[in-house]
Amino acid sequence: MSSVGAWVAVAVTVLLTVYGQIVIKLRVLHAGAMGSSIEDKAVFLAKMLLDPWVLSGLFGAFFAGFAWMAAMTRLPLSLAYPFTSLAFVLVVIISAIFLQEQVKLMQVAGIGLVICGLILIARA
Predict the structure, then answer these.
(1) pTM greater than the 0.85 cutoff
(2) What Rg value do the Cα atoms of the chain yield, rounded?
(3) Positions in the chain short of pLDDT 70
C-alpha cells in the first residue's frame, strides 16, 4: 500500500465511523425513548441489535478497524491518529444538517481549533 492508499484508509476509517454514529442516532430516534425498567432496556437494546440499519452502523465500525490497520502499515500513529478527530467535526456538521441539532458557538470554536491543530500536525 502506498502512502496515498494509507491516507485513503484513514479517510475510510473516519467516514465509516461517522456513518455508524449517524445511522445509530437516526434509528434510536426512530425507536423512541428507552424504558426505565431493566426489562424495557433489554427489549430496547435487543430491538436495536436486530435493526438492519443499526447492524450496518456496527459493521461500519468493524470495517473501520480494518481500514485503520491498513493505514497503520504505512503511516506513523502520531501523524495519522490526530486525523481521526475529523470524525468529531463531521458528526457535528452532519448532525446539524440531517438531525437539526443545534450547533453552539463553543462547538464551532472547538471545530476551528481541531482544524487548526490538524493543519499544524500536517505541516510538521
Answers:
(1) yes
(2) 17
(3) none
